[in-house]
Amino acid sequence: MEDLKKYSLTCFLDENIKMIKEIFKNDESINMRIFQNQYSGLRGCLFFISDMVDTKVINEHILKPILESKVLLDDVDLISYLSNEIITSSTLKCSTSIDELVNAIVSGDTVLILEGYQEVIINSTKGWKVRAIEEPNSEKVLRGPKEGFIESMSTNLSMIRRKVCSKDLKFISMTLGERTRTKVCICYIDGLVHEDILNNIIKKIENISIDGITDVKYIGEFIDENPFSLFETSFTSEKPDTISGKILEGRVAVLVDGSPSVMTLPSLFIESFMAGDDYYINYYYASLGRLLRILGFIASISIPALYLSLVSFHQGTLQTPLLITIYAARVGVPFPSIVELLILLTVFEILREAGSRAPSTMGQAISIVGVLVLGTAAVDARLVSAPMIIIVGVSSITGLMIPNMTVTLSFIRAGLLLLSSVLGIYGYIFGMLALIIHLFSLRSCGIPFMGHLTSFHMQSIKDTIIRGPAWYMRYRPKFMSKDSKRGTIGGKGDE
Amino acid sequence: MNRYILLIIILISSIVLTGCWSYKEINALYIVAGIAIDKAENSDKYNIATEFINIKDNKREQSFESILLETEGDSISDAVTKMTRISAKRAYWGHATTIIISEEVAREGIVQFLDLIVRRGEARLSTNIYISKEKSAKEVLQRESFSTDVRSFELAIMVNESKNIVKVPALKTYEVINALAIPKVHTVLPTVKSFYNDGTPTNLLSGGAVFSMGKLVGFLEEKDILPYLFIKDQVEAGFLNVEAEKRNPNDTITLEILGSNTKIKPIYDSQTLGFDISIKTDVTIGELTTTTDYVSKRGRERLKKLAQKSLEKKIKSHIEDVQKEFGFDIFGFGNIIRQRNPRLWDNMEKDWDSIFKDLDLNINCDIQIKNTGHYLKPLKVVE
After folding, report:
1. Which residue range or ranges hold the Spore germination GerAC-like C-terminal domain (chain B) (predicted)?
2. How far lies A473's CA from each of A58, A250, B243, in Å?
3. Residues 6+ apart with CB under 8 A from B2
4. Which range scores top for mean pLDDT: A7-21, A43-57, A115-129, A432-446?
């Protein structure tokens, strides 16, 4: 944007038009409309980008009133006269800055330049097609709200605003990306959020220096305190109800224009195990779901490693009939167990990747090929043993229960497997210890990532491995929100 | 940077230099189910027969069978080592359940085999030990198994899982080892003998072999086992045959044991030593072939007295037999004295065998008939 410095607006319409045309040279989408009032002969020009503006607003609220107004005096300040009395569009702004003018045009506003005036009027005429609000594919729920965020940030903000009708709901806007100039909005509830955390996040986001940003994940990676960790210490969701719930717990939400996912900070490990509809179904059932997901997490990373160490190191710990069954299945298999496991896990990762990239109509074909050709045929051909298919299948499917962490799980699974291929169960324990130590060392915006998971206090674990009943959740997570009491006496800002 | 290199070196060496590095592929092992130990004919060598589990591989389906390998050696480990020159797969002893020892070898002593099991480490201390009453121990493994595919597993399941067999006092290796370390305690191991089932020979658990200081000294017959178990408080379930009354000699009464508890109390003063054996047994009527009323309240009282008398008699005659035949304490009465009154035991230990022969025993049975089974009355038979 350096090159804009050499331009400046003048009082002559023709020169201004020439200058703007030069700034936007080779840009076919820019539209120019020169007009002249029939009564006073006032000349002017409108600049806007077609397809980004609502032409109805330009026609009816800008052009029509100006062209039809009879009294146009040369001696009064025409700019304020027009903006106060003639133009009927709701939002407008006067400016002499060439910077602002260019930004307005590229973001879908209409710029009105008048003959004899250096000042221009910027009319808000943004209007483009946006996707309809629908249920996000990645977070399907059985019960509860079905709406999901879309790519338009203003719509997203309105969705949050509709859920939290409080004057304490605050939005801080900023622009990120030197070229894309993407709008970023930080959303929180005044009185609940910790100022330290909020200021910390704002400072970090302001410090981001990047060319362009298209999704909220960019910000997540920039402000992550543990950039090399397998675990992401930020939470993203596409559901307004989930995000509102997080904000109500004193978290800070970050929205990026053009991205349907919204990030909340600080984030806890346990948040990955919470499903969107946990809060809309019976709490026993929801708690069972949570426990299953946590068990699934442990099973998913442990099963291949444990199987390998039992079969290849500690045969004595297997029950005799089970040992004989596994023994029988392995007869004639050419590869060692560890190679077999690595091959099958890689095949599964390939299938998963192919399944998620391929068009949905081909997904069926992939699963049939995966199950029939690669599974059954491989066992029949004695390339792999049958129990191995079960082991890999179970560990992969349990991993899919936690969609936020599927890739993380694959890495941990492979790591533990390699460790136990060298040391047996000792290697597995070794790896698990390292994993636990790592998890407990993580911080998200200064908050321990493992949160309350080591607590035995009922109020602390009410919404972690179980989901307590709604009436029991009297307090917000203490370390995150300033005012921890929920309910009528609640937030300081509330009347 | 240097710190990271140091960290990596520490991590790698902690993986590579520690642990047992014992990755062994499961199908490179040959699972041993059991072993039979014999003396080779006309020599001092040992002849061992090892039962392996062999997978029959028929492309589509796998099944397993047992396969025997016989080797000879100067010692057991010599014979075991010989296997590695015969089989490509390493013998894996972790799942072995059964050790069968021939009478001849057992008479020489079994301590060396126990030592081998403890020292080698791979075989489990819960392995069961049996004594073969046939000519050789390997015969037991050679016979076809009646109910399972593997002979050794059949024996192990019978001995460990079938509660209804009161016939066999089952002992695991570690129990035998522990008993060896206690003075004047004698162990009784189960014996296996052949049985002809419709012409084909199979095996039968029957009776026990009495060991003194790790050497076989005699056998308990099948009829001795029940009283022996009652004294040792090892009865969990089983059947108790009641001697019929003299009035009705054709009656058959069998009681099913639901549970039993034996308490042995020593009684001693300056002159005499005796034991109070009180047995409390819960039973239900298992079989009743009689017209006599044993079912009504008074009848049950009569049956109870009858059964108590019959059991007391059995136990008494068994103890007398042991006192006469063996002349030493296979029941562990001495151990009770040793635990209760060590000072008294110190005086007695030397002469315990002779003291045992003249022990005063007071046997008290209390049999509770809990119910009459699934039918209330005796079956009615009309002439």
Report:
1. 206-373
2. 51, 14, 72
3. none
4. A432-446
- Confirm or reject contact between B189 and chain A (CB < 8 A): no
Burial status of residue A128 (CB atoms within 10 A of its CB: 0-12, 13-18, 19 or more) = exposed
Report the predicted TM-score, pTM, of the whole model to 2 decimal places: 0.80
Test the A interface: residue of B8, B25, B26, B93 with most A CBs within 10 Å: B26
A interface test, pick of B21, B23, B65, B128 with most A CB neighbours within 10 Å: B23
Helices A386-400 and A320-330: crossing angle in degrees, nearest 10, is 100
pLDDT tens track for B239-278:
888 877 777 777 788 888 888 899 988 887 777 788 888 9
Contact between A423 and B18 using a beta-carbon 8 Å cutoff: yes
Distance CA(B121)–CA(B127), nearest Å, equals: 12
More confidently predicted of A369 and B280? B280
**pLDDT confidence of residue B58:** 66
Tokens of A486: 């929920």
Q: Position of tokens 């591989």? A: B57
Residue B169: asked if its preceding bond is cis (omega within 30°), the reply is: no
Region B62-89: what's the mean pLDDT?
86
- Cβ-Cβ contacts under 8 Å between A and B: the total is 75
Tokens of A41: 């002969």
Please answer whether residues A476 and A483 qualify as being in contact, where contact means their C-beta atoms are separated by less than 8 angstroms.
Answer: yes
Among the partner-chain residues A315, A331, A430, the one whose CB lies closest to the CB of B94 is A315
pLDDT digits (tens, 9 = 90+) for A316-328: 888 888 888 888 8
Q: In sequence order, what are the beta bridge partners of A187?
A: A171, A253
Which two tokens mark B339?
Answer: 């635990």
Which residues in chain B have Cβ-Cβ distances shorter than 8 Å to A332?
Answer: 57
- Assign domain B222-378 to its CATH architecture: 2-Layer Sandwich (3.30)
DSSP state of A481: B
- A424:B20 CB<8 A: yes
Q: Express the helix, strand and coil content of chain A in percent, nearest 5 each.
A: 50, 15, 35
Asked if the C-beta of B18 comes within 8 angstroms of chain A's C-beta atoms, the answer is yes
Cα-only R_g, chain B:
26
Residue in A closest to B59 by C-alpha: A380
Of A320, A330, A332, the CB nearest to B26: A330
The residue among A326, A331, A426 with the most chain B CBs within 10 A of its CB, best to mutate, is A331
Residue identified by tokens 């699972």 is B31
Where are the domains positioned within chain B?
Answer: 27-220, 222-378
- Cβ neighbour number for residue A281 with a 10 Å cutoff: 16
Q: Touching check for B22 and chain A: CB below 8 Å?
A: yes
* 57-76 of B, contacting A, C-beta below 8 A: 57, 62-64
Residues 6 or more apart in contact with residue A340 via CB below 8 angstroms = A333, A384, A385, A388
Which residues lie across from B288 on neighbouring strands? B253
Q: In sequence order, what are the beta bridge partners of A264?
A: A235, A253
Beta bridge partners of B238: B257
In chain A, what are the domain boundaries?
Answer: 2-123, 137-266, 283-447
Q: Would you say residue B161 has pLDDT above 50?
A: yes
Which residues of chain A make contact with B29, given a CB cutoff of 8 A?
315, 327
Q: Stretch A377-404: mean pLDDT, rounded?
A: 87
Residue B336's DSSP bridge partners are none
| Chain centre to alpha carbon of residue A314 | 45
Tell me which of A329 and A4 has the higher pLDDT. Answer: A329
Grade residue A71 by pLDDT with cuts at 50, 70 and 90: low
The two structure tokens encoding residue B302:
């009569």
pLDDT at B154: 84
Could you please report the per-residue DSSP string of A386-424? Answer: HHHHHHHHHHHHHHHT-GGGHHHHHHHHHHHHHHHHHHT
Interchain contact, B27 vs A312, CB within 8 Å: no
**ipTM above threshold 0.95:** no
